[in-house]
């Protein structure tokens, strides 16, 4: 990220902190806003939030580690989640995950270098009858076959997805 662009993001973060400073218990709201700005919560932003809100950095880290929707790792534009709940696993979820890892060239819980894709695992999406299930952002793919995975990835690379 260019220094100018980063500086603008931190200016926006300072504005958000100032706006929430007088609100009771603003930490989670500020963390959400910061994650929207940066796409994740870098160490520098965490320290700035702690200082700006007058809370210990350990409190910020505690909130980040408790809530799974916060991330300290840059995520891709498209987050692919492969369900490995019992039904999905039994119906080929593990092979689907391995094929995504192979096609993207990254292990699970990682992001591609171009920050286009992040690959994660879900334990259950509640669609066991449609196993194995993959989600890409809000899009749901059911009964996913290994040979269809390159097509799914291509759809998002080429901007053809909704």
The helix/strand class is: alpha+beta
Q: At the first level of CATH, what is the class of the largest domain?
A: Alpha Beta
Query: Strand order, biggest sheet?
Result: 2-3-1-4-5
CATH homologous superfamily descriptor of the largest domain: Glutaredoxin
Spell the H/E element sequence: HHHHEHEEEEH
Kindly report the average pLDDT value: 92
The tally of domains stands at 2
Strand residues, percent: 5-15%
CATH architecture group name of the largest domain: 3-Layer(aba) Sandwich
* Number of beta-strand segments: 5
Shape: elongated
How large is the radius of gyration? 18 Å
* CA distance, first residue to last residue: 27 Å
Q: What kind of oligomer do you see?
A: single chain
Could you walk me through the main structural features you see in this protein, from its secondary elements to its overall organization?
The mean pLDDT is 92. Strands 2-3-1-4-5 form a 5-stranded mixed beta sheet, covered by helices on one side. The chain is elongated and about 50 Å long. The longest helix is centred in the middle third of the chain and has 19 residues, at 86-104. By secondary structure, the protein is α+β, with helices and mostly antiparallel strands. It folds into 2 domains: 3-66; 78-157, 3-Layer(aba) Sandwich (Glutaredoxin). It contains 6 helices and 5 strands. It has helices at residues 3-20, 27-38, 43-53, 57-66, 86-104, 149-157, and strands spanning 78-83, 110-111, 117-122, 134-136, 139-141. Helix 1 (3-20) runs antiparallel to helix 2 (27-38) and helix 2 runs antiparallel to helix 3.
């Amino acid at each position: 990220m260019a220094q100018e662009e980063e500086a603008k993001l931190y200016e926006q973060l300072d504005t958000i902190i100032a706006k929430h400073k007088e609100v009771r218990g603003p930490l989670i709201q500020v963390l959400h806003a910061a994650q929207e700005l940066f796409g994740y919560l870098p160490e520098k932003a965490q320290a700035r939030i702690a200082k700006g809100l007058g809370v210990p950095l350990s409190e910020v880290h505690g909130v980040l580690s408790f809530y799974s929707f916060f991330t300290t790792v840059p995520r891709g534009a498209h987050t692919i989640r492969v369900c490995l709940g019992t039904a999905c696993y039994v119906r080929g979820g593990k092979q689907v995950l391995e094929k995504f890892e192979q096609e993207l060239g990254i292990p699970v819980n990682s992001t591609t270098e171009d920050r286009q894709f992040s690959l994660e695992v879900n334990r259950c999406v509640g669609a066991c009858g449609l196993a194995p299930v993959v989600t890409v952002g809000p899009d749901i793919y059911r009964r996913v076959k290994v040979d269809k995975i390159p097509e799914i990835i291509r759809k998002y690379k080429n901007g053809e997805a909704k």
